[in-house]
Amino acid sequence: MKRALITGSSSGIGFAYAKLLSQKGWHLDLISQNQERSQNALDELAYTNCNTHICDLSSAESLMNVINDIPLPDLIVANAGIGITGSVGKNNRDHITDASYLMFGGVIELIEYYLPQMKIRNSGRVVIISSIGALIPMPKSSIYAAVKSGVYAYGRSLNSELKGNNVSVTVSLPGYVKTNIHKRAGLEHLTKKIPNWMWVSAEKVVKETESASIKGSSKIIPGLLYRFTSIFFDLWITQYVWKIMNGRK
């Protein structure tokens, strides 16, 4: 029976990934920070072949404590994240440190813990959920863009390094996904400002990401619209329109 470790599993992309894999009979190790949301997600999942783990992934000590108890998975989905916004100088040191570890440093520690074992076993897959913000400027979300760019570079480099080991690392770069991350980040106004055609469901992100991972691809931009427009991200007009549409308060 294949085993998957999923971080940020209680909602959004992480929950959608858990749901997809549960339908395929995988054993799931689900990591979430909030006990109540974790239990609600477990009830909705209605799947018994899984273990839940409560962990603050912005803490190195907490991360190491939990992964020491989880056997080597066949698939790692590093999904946990938060929205961190604010113009330069507006985020305090703690916010920056926590976000950086949660979405960059901790992701690396998690993957570096298991990847050597995957190499020895000669099998395994890793999926890193980054963001389209790794590819285009994100004014007033520079910290978020920076950490997502970091894991993007890390994942692509690893995938190249591991060719020949039957181990792959795929970085997913979704655009606007219908999850509650915007509300938690104080960006609920974007749910009304961004046109409906720019939103992608978590289920679609997971379906396309899992397909790319199985193929061993180094990256995937979910959604045909985002894949097409990404060709033009370096153009000033594209960046100008993106800045206007994605204005942060």
Q: Give the name of the CATH architecture.
A: 3-Layer(aba) Sandwich
Unreliable spans: none
Here the CATH topology equals Rossmann fold
* Overall helicity: 40-55%
Strand order of the largest sheet: 3-2-1-4-5-6-9
3D architecture notes:
The protein has 249 residues and is α/β, with parallel strands linked by helices. The protein has ten helices and nine strands. It has helices at 12-23, 35-45, 60-67, 93-121, 142-161, 181-184, 190-193, 202-215, 224-229, 236-245; strands at 3-7, 27-32, 50-54, 75-78, 124-129, 167-172, 176-177, 199-200, 219-220. The model has no long low-confidence stretch (mean pLDDT 87).
Quick summary:
With 249 residues, the protein is of the alpha/beta class. The protein has 10 helices and 9 strands.
Keyword list:
249 residues, Rossmann fold, two-stranded parallel sheet, 10 helices, 9 strands, 15% strand, globular
Task: Describe the secondary-structure layout.
Blueprint lengths: L2 E5 L4 H12 L3 E6 L2 H11 L4 E5 L5 H8 L7 E4 L14 H29 L2 E6 L12 H20 L5 E6 L3 E2 L3 H4 L5 H4 L5 E2 L1 H14 L3 E2 L3 H6 L6 H10 L4
Helix pairs in contact: 1-8, 3-4, 4-5
